[in-house]
Design brief:
The chain is globular, with a radius of gyration of 18 Å. The protein contains 11 helices and 11 strands. By secondary structure, it is an alpha+beta fold.
């Protein structure tokens, strides 16, 4: 898998199966998406001015960028904090053996994920331990989990672990960390700003900026990752972007690579393959693809 997650191949599929032309023939409400795809295709130069912001994909044009979100707290994040006790109780009931264990090259020690939404798929058919949390998540406005690079998951870092500096794939999302269990001496750096989690509270950041995580404590650190759409994307842009990347032929280029560093991911891959194949009949995809 190349570092740009198959940009050329994605655009090739989008052109061949009608999505690219459908966007380009759209009205002015899709102008930023048109520019994004032209940059994707190498037809237009990307303009990027932020330091330490290096996503794999081009930056979507016209979106404000800051490492930690400083705007008003979104309604969905308020709901997560209000429902913290329910989420915490279910999260702590999940045994570590139910998590996927990762050992990516950028991790100095084990990292575990319990997937709730992954690659545009509701994982409740295989991740059955958090039904109330799943219900809460489905109710949240601007939740970014139909888009395959948006996730909701429990993230567990063991003691003496360090997820080293890296950037995510895009700047379309605002990542929320709801702090579930936070030992002393845990922190996250995004851009040039380092902060600590507070149990029951959410940290909001743009993971297209370089970021890294430490657990220097003596017990596991658990947060719930929840992705929301960037607040400056319009609803029509969200629909168009979701449709573009939900297509099975696009997703199959990268979904296995996202999970390949996990121990024994076979059951998750089978579930993802089955669900992704069914979703090509989604009206959202049929709206934008031939």
């Amino acid at each position: 898998m190349d570092k740009n997650w198959n940009l050329d191949k994605i655009i090739e599929v989008m052109r061949a199966d009608g999505y690219y032309d459908r966007i380009m023939s759209g009205g002015p409400e899709l102008d930023r998406v048109k520019t994004y795809l032209r940059i994707f295709a190498g037809e237009q130069q990307e303009e990027r001015s932020q330091s330490l912001q290096f996503p794999n994909y081009p930056c979507f044009p016209g979106l404000s960028a800051e490492p930690f979100y400083s705007g008003s707290k979104p309604e969905g994040v308020k709901t997560l904090e209000a429902e913290f006790e329910t989420i915490r109780d279910e999260s702590l009931s999940v045994s570590k053996s139910s998590y996927l264990r990762y050992a990516p090259a950028k991790m100095s020690n084990d990292w575990y994920l319990y997937l709730l939404f992954h690659m545009g798929v509701d994982m409740s058919g295989i991740s059955v331990a958090c039904p109330k949390t799943q219900e809460i998540l489905r109710s949240l406005p601007r939740l970014c989990v139909d888009y395959p690079w948006g996730d909701a998951a429990l993230s567990l870092n063991v003691p003496d672990s360090h997820l080293q500096p890296h950037c995510s794939v895009d700047n379309l999302r605002m990542r929320c960390h709801l702090a579930i269990e936070i030992p002393d001496n845990c922190s996250i750096r995004v851009g040039s700003d380092t902060r600590e989690w507070e149990q029951g509270k959410a940290l909001l950041f743009d993971d297209s900026f370089e970021h890294e995580v430490w657990n220097r404590g003596s017990t596991d650190r658990i947060v719930m990752i929840v992705d929301f759409w960037h607040p400056e994307l319009t609803d029509i842009e969200v629909r168009a972007l979701s449709a573009g990347f939900r297509k099975a032929e696009v997703r199959k280029m990268f979904y296995s690579a996202r999970i390949h560093t996990a121990d024994n991911p076979e059951s998750h891959l089978r579930y993802l393959e089955h669900e992704i194949a069914k979703q090509d009949s989604d009206p959202l995809i049929l709206e934008y693809w031939d």
